[in-house]
C-alpha cells in the first residue's frame, strides 16, 4: 500500500510541478471553451443548448493532451524498468498512474467547468448535471487513455497516434455526458448519468489490466 | 542478506528483431560473487541483462534462480529479486535529489534512511537540488544509491562505470564488493575493468 501511495503522490507531484501537465490541461480547456462562443456567435439560447456537448468535447481533448505522459516519460528515462521490477505489480502501478492522472486533470477540469458554463450562458438547472457527468465520466478518459498510452509507448511521436486510438473509445462518455446535461435542461429524468457512471466504472476496472499488458509488451521490445 | 543462493542459465539464446544475438549461453554464478559480462558493441550484454530481469523472453533455454525455498524460472517472479541499474538513469528533472531517491525507496519498501545513502555516494550536499541540474556522473551516483537502497540480492548493472569519475568508479567498486560480501550476486555488463576480483563472461560479436 505504501508503494501505491508513493507512486500516486510522485506522479501527482510531477504533473503539478513546473512543466507539468495539470495547468496545461486546464488552460487548454479554458481556451477551447472560450473560443466556441466566438465562433458560434452571440446566440445565447443556442449557446446554452450546446454548452454541455462543447464542454464535454473540450474536457476530453484537454485530458488527452497529457495522456502520453502517463508512461512515456518513465519509459524514456528508464524509470519504467524500475517500476516494473518493484514489489508493485504492473497492474497496480497502472491503476496508481490512472488515479494520479485523473486527480491532476479530470478533477480540476470538472471543478473549472461551472465557470466555463457561465461563458456559455448555461441555464441554472444544467449545472448539477454538468458537474456530475464530468466527475463521473472523466475517470474513463484517464483509464482508457492509459491503455492508449501503454500501446503507443515505443512509437516515436506516439502522442500523435494516441488520440486516434482513444477518441473513438471515449465516444460513449461524450454521448451520455452531454446527453445528461441536455436532459437536465429539458427537465427530463436523468438516466444518462447512470450510463456515464457505468461506462466509467467498467473502464476504470478493466483498464489497469489492459494498460499493464500493453506496457509489458513494450518493455520486451 | 538473502535467500538467493545461485543463478544459472542453460542453452540460452536471444533474438532481437529476427536476428540472433547469441545462443548456447550457459553460465552459473553463486551467492557472494560478481560476474563481468564483456564483449564488443552489439554482442548482447544489455539483452542478457534484460533477459535475466524478465523483460525479454529467451528464444531458447532457461534462466534459473536457486533460493533456499526452491527454484524459480518464471520471469516476473525473478524480477522481485533484482536490483536494476539500467543504461538510463531514471532521474526525474523536476524532483530534488532527495525526492528522487525517496520515491524509489518507498516504492521498493526500503527500510534504510535516505540521507545516509546520499552521504555515501557523495550527494548529501546536493540533497535539495532538482534532478535537472545534475551531471551525468552525479545521476549515476544517485542511481547507485537507489540500487543499494532497493535491498535486492541480485544486482544487474548496465555499464555501471560509464560517466563516473575516478572516485565514483571506486565507489561503485566498493558497493559491488560490499554487496558480494553480504551474500549478494552482481552481474555487470561493462567495457572497462570493474576494479575488483570477479568472474568474467565474454560474449562474442553477433
Low-confidence segments of chain A, given as residue ranges, are: none
Q: Mean pLDDT score of chain A, rounded?
A: 92
Biggest interface and residues each: A-B, 26 and 25 residues
Low-confidence stretches of chain B: none
CATH architecture of the largest domain in chain B: 3-Layer(aba) Sandwich
Structure report:
The complex is a heterodimer of chains A (221) and B (206). Chain A has 221 residues and is mainly α. Chain A has helices at residues 2-16, 22-40, 44-65, 72-76, 79-85, 90-119, 127-151, 158-185, 191-219. Chain A has one domain. Chain A has 9 helices and no strands. The radius of gyration of chain A is 18 Å and the shape is elongated. The mean pLDDT of chain A is 92. By secondary structure, chain B is an alpha/beta fold. Chain B has 2 domains: 1-81 and 152-206, Rossmann fold (3-Layer(aba) Sandwich), CATH 3.40.50; 96-151. Chain B has helices spanning 45-53, 75-79, 97-107, 114-120, 136-150, 166-181, and strands at 4-16, 19-30, 34-38, 60-67, 70-72, 82-85, 154-158, 185-189, 199-202. Chain B has a 5-stranded parallel sheet with strand order 6-7-8-3-9, with helices on both faces. In chain B, a hairpin with a 2-residue loop joins strand 1 and strand 2. The relative contact order of chain B is 0.22. The mean pLDDT of chain B is 90. The chains are: A mainly alpha (221), B alpha/beta (206). Chain A binds chain B through residues 2-3, 5-7, 10, 13-14, 17-20, 76-79, 81-88, 219-220, and chain B through 53, 55-57, 79-80, 82, 84, 86-92, 94-95, 99, 103-104, 106-109, 146.
Amino acid at each position: 500500500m505504501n508503494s501505491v501511495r508513493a507512486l500516486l503522490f510522485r506522479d501527482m507531484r510531477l504533473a503539478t510541478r513546473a512543466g507539468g501537465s495539470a495547468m496545461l490541461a486546464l488552460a487548454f480547456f479554458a481556451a477551447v471553451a472560450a473560443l466556441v462562443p466566438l465562433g458560434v456567435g452571440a446566440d445565447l439560447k443556442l449557446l446554452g443548448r450546446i454548452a454541455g456537448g462543447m464542454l464535454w468535447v473540450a474536457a476530453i481533448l484537454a485530458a488527452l493532451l497529457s495522456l502520453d505522459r502517463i508512461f512515456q516519460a518513465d519509459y524514456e528515462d528508464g524509470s519504467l524498468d524500475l517500476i516494473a521490477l518493484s514489489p508493485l505489480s504492473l497492474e497496480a502501478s497502472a491503476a496508481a498512474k490512472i488515479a494520479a492522472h485523473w486527480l491532476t486533470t479530470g478533477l480540476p477540469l470538472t471543478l473549472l467547468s461551472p465557470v466555463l458554463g457561465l461563458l456559455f450562458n448555461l441555464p441554472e438547472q444544467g449545472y448539477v448535471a454538468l458537474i456530475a457527468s464530468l466527475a463521473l465520466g472523466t475517470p474513463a478518459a484517464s483509464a482508457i487513455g492509459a491503455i492508449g498510452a501503454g500501446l503507443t509507448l515505443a512509437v516515436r511521436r506516439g502522442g500523435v497516434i494516441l488520440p486516434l486510438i482513444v477518441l473513438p473509445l471515449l465516444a460513449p462518455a461524450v454521448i451520455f455526458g452531454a446527453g445528461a446535461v441536455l436532459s437536465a435542461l429539458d427537465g427530463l429524468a436523468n438516466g444518462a448519468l447512470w450510463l456515464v457512471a457505468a461506462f466509467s466504472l467498467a473502464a476504470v476496472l478493466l483498464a489497469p489490466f489492459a494498460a499493464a499488458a500493453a506496457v509489458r509488451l513494450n518493455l520486451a521490445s | 542478506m538473502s535467500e538467493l543462493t545461485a543463478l544459472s542459465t542453460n542453452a540460452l539464446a536471444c533474438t532481437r528483431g529476427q536476428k540472433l544475438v547469441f545462443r548456447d549461453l550457459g553460465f552459473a554464478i553463486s551467492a557472494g560473487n560478481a560476474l563481468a559480462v564483456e564483449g564488443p558493441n552489439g554482442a548482447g550484454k544489455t539483452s542478457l541483462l534484460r533477459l535475466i530481469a524478465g523483460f525479454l523472453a529467451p528464444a531458447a533455454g532457461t534462466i534459473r534462480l536457486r533460493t533456499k525455498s526452491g527454484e524459480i524460472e518464471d520471469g516476473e517472479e525473478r524480477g522481485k529479486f533484482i536490483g536494476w541499474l539500467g543504461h538510463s538513469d531514471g532521474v526525474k528533472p523536476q524532483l530534488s535529489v532527495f525526492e528522487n531517491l525517496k520515491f524509489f525507496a518507498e516504492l521498493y519498501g526500503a527500510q534504510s534512511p535516505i540521507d545516509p545513502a546520499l552521504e555515501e555516494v557523495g550527494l548529501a550536499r546536493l540533497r535539495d537540488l532538482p534532478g535537472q541540474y545534475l551531471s551525468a556522473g552525479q545521476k549515476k551516483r544517485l542511481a547507485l544509491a537507489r540500487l543499494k537502497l532497493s535491498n535486492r540480492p541480485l544486482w544487474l548493472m548496465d555499464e555501471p562505470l560509464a560517466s563516473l569519475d575516478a572516485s565514483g568508479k571506486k565507489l561503485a567498486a566498493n558497493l559491488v564488493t560490499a554487496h558480494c560480501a553480504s551474500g549478494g550476486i552482481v552481474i555487470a555488463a561493462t567495457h572497462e575493468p570493474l576494479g575488483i576480483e570477479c568472474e568474467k563472461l565474454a560474449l562474442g560479436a553477433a
